[in-house]
Design a protein that fits this description.
about 250 residues, alpha/beta, 11 strands, about 25% helix, globular, binds manganese (II) ion
Length: about 250
Amino acid sequence: MRILITNDDGVYSPGLLALAEVARKFGEVRVFAPDVEMSSAAQSITASRPLSCKATLLPGVTAFRVNGTPSDCVMLGTSLWEKVDVVLSGINIGSNLGNAMWHSGTLAGARQAAMLGLRGIAFSAPSTEHAQPDFRLLKPWASTVLEALLKARELTLVNVNFPDKLPHGIQWTRQSVRHYDGKVVPAKDPMGRRHYWFTVIPVESTDEGTDRWAVEEGYVSMTPLSLDLTEHKQLEKVRKLETWEALSFH
Ligand code: MN
């Protein structure tokens, strides 16, 4: 099995190395990852300039650094290395739960694989201002998850999130969409000029069965995703209308 590994924290992230070390047990591994941090790059690809792909040194794994986004890395990696079976992305330093999935470069790396007709699995772990994830503790859990997911060929895209403590189990979850946790924080630079930070605020309440709920309860969250953004219920309704514009607003 050929396993391509990417991330959005950059090729030298300890989370990527931890994932590569786990993945080696399951197949042939190569790393194609951004040369600098690309967090929140989402699904963007670089179309305005050419890309470079340079061999780099990571312990025990063939690795390349790309001056592009996670999606660029997967596009480039799968064209330079043929017959990739699955793309693993992460382990991200920071959760990718709920609506954050839209911004996540980690998930985008995995989703790029799904768009290419391959399989993708994204891994994220929470971090705080003071503490990064303990990848040594998470590695056995990443291994358990991979063992199950690599066999489940019908799952083409899965978003995996670890809790902030040692997990006590694994839960299948749905994406929580009730709250948006993004926020704009105004501040001033040293010259007194106004600038803005985009940041994340804690979400107060969570719904049972969601990704956010699972990690709060100390579980590893696994959310199967689809590429189809269509709102199927609405589509069914509007298709039943006599003419396409016969929407009722009263
Ligand atoms: Mn990141």
